[in-house]
Amino acid sequence: MEKIQIIWVLSLLLVFLARLPDGLATDNSCSVSTLDARRFFERENELLRQRYHEEYLASYTYNTNVTDDNRQAMIAVYARNAVQNKQLAQKIKSSDYHLSEDADIRRQALHLSKMGASALNTEDYLALQNAISSMQSNYATTNVCSYTNRSDCSLTLEPHIQERLSNSRDPAELAWYWREWYDKAGTSQKDNFAEYVRLTRKAAHLNDHRSYADYWVQFYEDADFERQLDASFKQLLPFYRQIHGYVRYRLRQHYGEDVVPAEGNIPMHLLGNMWAQSWNEVIDLFTPYPEKPFVDVKAEMVQQNYTVQKLFELGDQFFQSLGMRALPPSFWNLSLITRPDDRQVVCHASAWDFYQDSDVRIKMCTEVDMHYFFVVHHELGHIQYYLQYEQQPAVFRGAPNPGFHEAVGDVIALSVMSAKHLKSIGLTDNGRLDEKSRINELFKQALSKIVFLPFGYTMDKYRYAVFRNEIEEPQWNCGFWQMRSEYGGVEPPVSRTDKDFDPPAKYHIDADVEYLRYFAAHIFQFQFHKALCSLAGQYAPNDSRRTLDNCDIFGSKEAGRALSKFLSHGSSRHWKEVLQEFTGETEMDTSALLEYFDPLYQWLKQENSRLGVPLGWGETNKIPTDCCGQFST
Ligand SMILES: *[C@@H]1O[C@H](CO)[C@@H](O)[C@H](O)[C@H]1NC(C)=O
Ligand SMILES: *[C@@H]1O[C@H](CO)[C@@H](O)[C@H](O)[C@H]1NC(C)=O
Ligand SMILES: *[C@@H]1O[C@H](CO)[C@@H](O)[C@H](O)[C@H]1NC(C)=O
Ligand SMILES: *[C@@H]1O[C@H](CO)[C@@H](O)[C@H](O)[C@H]1NC(C)=O
Ligand SMILES: *[C@@H]1O[C@H](CO)[C@@H](O)[C@H](O)[C@H]1NC(C)=O
Fold first, then answer.
1. How many beta carbons lie within 10 A of that of residue 12, not counting itself?
2. Taking the CA of residue 165 as centre, how many other CA atoms within 13 Å lie in the half-sphere pointing to its CB?
3. 546: closest CA among 420, 377, 369, 361?
4. Is 378 labelled as part of a ligand binding site?
5. What residues form the catalytic site here (predicted)?
6. pLDDT of residue 30
7. 304: CA distance to ligand 3 center in Å?
């Protein structure tokens, strides 16, 4: 015992000595070393900010003008900065900053010593960025051939194909576009994806992670998060099964038994979205109370001469009504908010922080309709986050939990989409819904918010399995559809084999975007919503006039103050601490979401049982029967 203690004291002393600044022994050496550390991190954060600034400029140039020159220029900047990031991480790792008495320094040291892909040698790093950006370029430039004129091969996903998915009710036409897109955006990228998997695995190992999946999961700073993810999914599944059963039943009535099975997977091309991640575009096929029509918000917008600019102005006004930050003039000058016709752009909507002078921008190919009105708010949520944590050091200019960043705009949109708010901005004249209209509205919301969950869950469960080598490369494609079917009960319209490769048909898979953040955001946003609605006096438990689905926080300075405070921490503190300060909770929790939708859940259970609707689904027969093993949820 004695001996061990002496060794311990000695090593403490060594650490202590090592921390003394060069030749300067003072009585107050602890705080001197803390001051020193603060100066070190201040300097490094400024350099890091400059590197981010340079990277995002190069990346924005590429994203708003997809040429090979711009792609190469972007990769060159990334590669140069990766070397600097790696050196910084190594310097910190070999220092004792992580033992600092100052919690803020310890947290900076922890975050800045993560290298990610920068850990790779230059050749591998370049190869990885090349694989990712080649997939992105392919996604951005994929055009497909028209169903009605096969020699016209100039159709883009946004808006042409999406318009057909929303409005065509011809299964053959829908299957045509499905196949065109998956063949061209997906299969051609198999080699790039394989290279991506190989190199990210190498990077993960260099960072002492068992796999790239483990690297992604540690963003959540919670060893238990993956288990919680599975637990949340299980809690949501009974509700999803009711929606799925009801939709399949109604689709079968519309399309007939040759097109839609009574008990199996739903053919995904009928659901109004290329990935069947939301089904609300085709809600007219399965509206609970068809005699209670939805307000046609799009027609109203068109009639009132809404422009794309106006959608952004409304979003800006909402944040300002809460007392939060206005969009700076440079936002309006430098954003790209409609598709230009003189060049190729990455249309997938995104929000940008340039880490300098409040320079924040949005890049998206906006059109005037309800869907884009929602996306505008989603992206403006990112922008507001950027502005709120602007004063943080570069290392903390991010969300402490990736799900938080995706949830901010969605929370605002939950208010904006309420009948109460739509009435206040003159897009409907009915601000109070009767019971039937309320069920219709909740159902429409569920077709995006709930239907998304099995999809979001699959995106990363699938990639975890690939990264961890739990699915062998020859079975990457059938494994993808097997999981999509098992978790979500949907399947491709045509048989797919392992000669096809479909995952890159989704943007985030090409772009190396971790996806659990969206799943988490869909749950967190209802926790945030409940907290903000309480502060705004718009929600009270068991008060039928103040329910979560008819809450509009517009104009509430109390709500705005709480949200600003929550966002302004950036990632400087653990997400459980800032969540607790904001909502009183310390976990991702499905109860607010389930409360929001409870009237619909009760209605669906009754209606499905009244109609004798079967629930659940079996295995898909659109992939070879000898695919991979079972995955457990
Ligand atoms: C797009 O980038 C190319 C360089 O690859 C440049 O020559 C061209 O002028 C750019 N177009 C626009 C509209 O900025
Ligand atoms: C079909 O598309 C081609 C190529 O865009 C065009 O030249 C042709 O006129 C189109 N045919 C019809 C019938 O629209
Ligand atoms: C919309 O524009 C049309 C044509 O410019 C005009 O006649 C009409 O008054 C406008 N409507 C509104 C609500 O501003
Ligand atoms: C926005 O653009 C205008 C006109 O091009 C210019 O005069 C102004 O300085 C710009 N403002 C900002 C903030 O960039
Ligand atoms: C409010 O409703 C919850 C269930 O939703 C119930 O457990 C609770 O007892 C109710 N509280 C009051 C005060 O009625």
1. 11
2. 28
3. 420
4. yes
5. 379 (proton acceptor 2), 379 (proton acceptor 1), 508 (proton donor 1), 508 (proton donor 2)
6. 57
7. 7
Domain boundaries, the chain: 298-449+517-604
Question: Which ligand gives the minimal distance to the CA of 547?
Answer: 5
CA nearest ligand 4 atom 14, residue: 330
Q: Is 330 in the pocket of ligand 4 (CB under 6 A)?
A: yes
DSSP 8-class letter at 547: -
Mention every residue, 6+ apart, whose C-beta is less than 8 A from residue 13.
none
Over the stretch 186-225, which tens digit does the pLDDT of each residue have? 999 999 999 999 999 999 999 999 999 999 999 999 999 9
Q: Closest ligand to 67 CA?
A: 1
Q: What is the phi/psi pair of residue 628, to 5°?
A: -80, -175
* Residues 329-382: tens digit of each pLDDT: 999 999 999 999 999 999 999 999 999 999 999 999 999 999 999 999 999 999
User: Any binding-site annotation on 421?
Assistant: no
- 529 known ligand binder: no
> Is 577 designated active site?
no
Closest CA to 196 of 630, 582, 446, 503: 503
Rg (CA), the chain: 26
Angle of helix 308-321 versus helix 402-416 axis, rounded to 10: 100
Q: Is 517 annotated as a binding residue?
A: yes
Six token digits for residue 116: 């990610």
CA 329 – ligand 4 centroid, Å: 8
Tell me which residue has its CA closest to atom 2 in ligand 2.
Answer: 152
Residues with CB under 6 A from ligand 3: 304-305
Q: Which CATH number fits domain 298-449+517-604: 1.10.10.10, 1.10.3430.10, 3.30.1330.40, 1.10.1370.30?
A: 1.10.1370.30
CA 300–ligand 3 middle distance (angstroms): 12
What is the per-residue pLDDT across 59-70, written as a single tens digit (0 to 9) for each?
A: 999 999 999 999
DSSP states of 253-278: HHH-TTTS-SSSPEEGGGSSSTT-S-
Secondary structure of 376-433 in the HEC alphabet?
Answer: HHHHHHHHHHHHHCCCCCHHHCCCCCHHHHHHHHHHHHHHHCCHHHHHHCCCCCCCCC
Sign of CA dihedral 322, 328, 333, 334: negative
CB 267 within 8 A of CB 491: yes
Ligand index nearest the alpha carbon of residue 69? 1
User: What separation in angstroms does the CA of 201 have from each of 85, 235, 462, 463, 476?
Assistant: 19, 32, 15, 12, 16
Q: From 408, 407, 405, 413, select the one nearest 570 (Cα to Cα).
A: 405
User: 520 CB contacts (<8 Å, ≥6 apart)?
Assistant: 220, 229, 401, 402, 403, 406, 407, 588
Q: How large a percentage of the chain has pLDDT more than 70?
A: 94
User: What does the block give as tokens for 194?
Assistant: 């394989």
Q: How far away, in angstroms, is 302 Cα from ligand 3 center?
A: 10
Q: pTM of the predicted model, to two decimals?
A: 0.92
Burial level of 205, CB count in 10 A (0-12/13-18/19+)?
Answer: middle
Q: Which of 621, 190, 229 is nearest to 461 (CA)?
A: 229
One-letter-per-residue 3-state SS of 81-109: HHHHHHHHHHHHHCCCHHHCCCHHHHHHH
Is the N-terminal amide bond of 329 cis, ω within 30° of 0?
no
Q: Which ligand 4 atom sits closest to the C-alpha of 330?
A: 13
